[in-house]
Amino acid sequence: MFLRQLEPRTARTTSEVLNFALWPFAVMTVLHQVFVKATNFNITDDFAPVYKASLAFLNGRSIYAENFDLVDPHYLYPPGGTLLIAPLAIIDPDRSKWCFDSLNAIAMLVAWYLLLKLFKLSIKSYAAPLTLLLMFSSETVINTLAFGNVNGCILLAEVLFIALLLARRELWAGVVMGLAITVKPTIAPMLLIPLMRRQWKVFLPALGVPIALTAIALPLIKDPMDYLHRTLPYSIQARDYFNSSIPGISAYLGLPSLLTWSIRIGMGVLVLASLWLLYRYYRHDELFFICTSSGILLLAEFLISGLGQQYYSMLLFPFLMTVVLRNSVLRNWPAWLAIFGFTTFDKWLLDHWQVVGRDLEYLRITFGWGLLLFVTFCVLGDRYLTARREGRLDSGIDPVFLLPEHNGAPVADAPQTPRIPVPDTTATIGPADPDDEEPSNAPNEAGVLR
């Protein structure tokens, strides 16, 4: 039956044409990134310090003795994360890296499939190969595999966390988030989502797992206090290389501290205002609320904290997928101009205008993150102001064209009853393939590891 699906045949519908055209591009792009990009030599090697630290851990040697005067990738995982990744050093470095990259590639593929399920997109629709192609063509996936980073596994943990929150499996959601935080604390701001949703059970394993793993790891590490006194302070400070956060770019450009803090505080205000509007008017639209909130929180982490690198943008994939929802904040061209800035693998360095080229290359990620955050705030704010002006705040702040008609009466005069918006993906994925079944319900060179 599977081989029959591969039999060449002529497309009869637009959906079939797009499927036949996109799947070869998607599959060959995945194979290229996994078997070529991930195995070829790259000047940036995030995996080498991880393997070295794992080997030192297994042999009882010092782990946190990095020379931070160098700009090479440093080992920054906390003790609990060291415990989890230590088995990598059981085999030789080359095969270990290939296994590690394979694990990340599989994790990204599973995350892609789960995202399709979450947004009720059929694997037979052309949305499947299109999203797969776009994911594996992005800088974040290419450099995650080429550098040997753990981002793919963190993405899978994020998607599983979202799915488990939606399914009200709070304890398992906490376990997944706890394991992810143990390795990469960058994802920790997502715990604000169950806090806003009052899913208190999440926090027991989400905090308990990292604490337990750290307690187990500390006696096994030769230099645990060096992590607190040397590695941790270094990992939270803003440096002026391989860092697209606002403090990092400000350090690179030599901006005054007052200006830097003003920009950070301004962005923080946008984050708080956007989260308030989402909580006040969209918390019952669970998929939209969780995925959009996760995007805002992670954008804030990348921009405002001391370290933000382009390939962290992989964690924004669930947010980007909300474009298939009719009430998405991403259905406008400024949002996708912003997304272009931090997802593409393009290099904007200019041989003849080197200063301009460096600024374009280094600032496009920061501007992309900032613009997307600004667009999100503007869309939500405009919806709120419009709904208040029309006197329909009690029924939500969705645009008028999403509101149901009531016997031809003007929308502003409709009964003010609460409603839960229903995601509609038909406007995005186009005409249905007659063979489709019902969908299931069920990118900046990286120099530092976190």
From TrEMBL:
Pfam families: GT87. This is Glycosyltransferase family 87 protein. Belongs to the glycosyltransferase 87 family. Keywords: Cell membrane, Glycosyltransferase, Membrane, Transferase, Transmembrane, Transmembrane helix. The chain crosses the membrane at residues 20-36, 102-119, 140-165, 171-195, 202-221, 261-279, 286-304, 362-380. It comes from the Bacteria. The lineage of its organism: Bacteria, Bacillati, Actinomycetota, Actinomycetes, Mycobacteriales. Residues 410-450 are annotated as: Disordered. Its EC number is 2.4.-.-. It is a multi-pass membrane protein. It is found in: Cell membrane. InterPro entries: GT87. One of its GO terms (molecular function) is glycosyltransferase activity. Signal peptide: none annotated.
